Amino acid sequence: MKYDFFSVVIPFFLHTHYLKSLVESIHRHADIPFEIIVHDDRGIDHSSLAIEDKVSTIVLNLGKNLGLAASANRAIACANGKYILFLNQDCEIIRPCLRDYAKVLDKPYVGVLSPYGDPYPQTSPEWIETEGVKFTLRHGISGCCALAFRKEVWEEIGGFEEIISGCCDTTLMYKMYRAGYFRAVALGERWIRNISLEEKGNSDTTIGPYGDCGYPRVFNLNNYDELCRKRAWECQRRQDEHQKEPAGISNIDYWHGYSVELMPQSGVISSIDWEVAKRHGQIKWKPHLERETIYCG
């Protein structure tokens, strides 16, 4: 099998110690060709340049802080790989995984892969296996510290939503559902961990004071940039509007209900309700999934 390379994309704002650790872990565990693209979003001192010799591309934003979603889109636009691995900077790769992620993403019905998991192995009553790699299909929110997808899918859906506050990676998943794709969840031992979550109880998290910013808690809110305040307000207003839409990309209630309808038994691939799947075009993958061997635990 020929493996196209991965573009590892890291939106970055301060906390250089996390960035160094993550970049080193990629070099240590990469098992197929890769490039690393860091987007330094007005990091004041451009401390990201400290890892310049280990990174393929550093995009510097010298203007106003753009926020996580816009930074991610700018970085991915520079990517040359077939596959994108989007990582928060406080993540760390702990074992070789890129080759296996590529095998899952080569399934045409997979729009996004959640490879992170929680601090325990991912399990499921049913799974699909491709060249020794196990994964299942699910909907909903999971693995938001790390997401993998094909760049062509990101282009098809129009990338991250830059106007939506909250978890922009969650809305990316919902946009993929609306475009007719499934979310895959890697099973077995974890390959990526979140250092802040596991070691510091999120006290040093890369989630900022406003979800739209999604950066470390380094802002002094009394002196917070007025433009950012207005942006946060506008994002919240737009998010509220989307929540009123039946299939709004930030309407968590809608997508939770759709997930339950689509797969009445959580993570059970054989129970997909294809009549429900018609709603967002997922029924087009029925012939593909009927050819897959579904393994049961």
Describe this structure in words.
The protein has helices at 16-29, 68-77, 98-105, 151-157, 168-178, 195-200, 226-243, 252-262, 274-277, 286-291, and strands at residues 6-12, 34-41, 57-61, 83-87, 91-93, 110-114, 126-130, 133-138, 146-150, 182-186, 192-194, 294-296. A five-stranded mixed sheet has the order 3-2-1-4-9, sandwiched between helices. A five-stranded mixed sheet has the order 6-10-8-7-12. A two-stranded antiparallel sheet has the order 5-11. The protein is 32% helix and 20% strand. β1 (6-12), α1 (16-29) and β2 (34-41) form a beta-alpha-beta unit. Mean pLDDT is 82; it is low at 208-214 and 216-221.
Which word captures the global form?
A: globular
Helix-strand makeup class: alpha/beta
What is the percent of helical residues?
25-40%
According to CATH, what is the topology? Spore Coat Polysaccharide Biosynthesis Protein SpsA, Chain A
What's the Cα radius of gyration?
Answer: 19 Å
Second-tier CATH architecture: Alpha-Beta Complex
Strand order of the largest sheet: 3-2-1-4-9
CATH homologous superfamily placement: Spore Coat Polysaccharide Biosynthesis Protein SpsA, Chain A
Terminal residue distance? 28 Å
**Series of H and E elements:** EHEEHEEHEEEEHHEEHHHHHE
Total helical elements: 10
The overall number of domains is: 1
Number of strands: 12
Quick summary of this structure?
By secondary structure, this protein is an alpha/beta fold. It has one domain: Spore Coat Polysaccharide Biosynthesis Protein SpsA, Chain A (Alpha-Beta Complex). 32% of the residues lie in helices and 20% in strands.
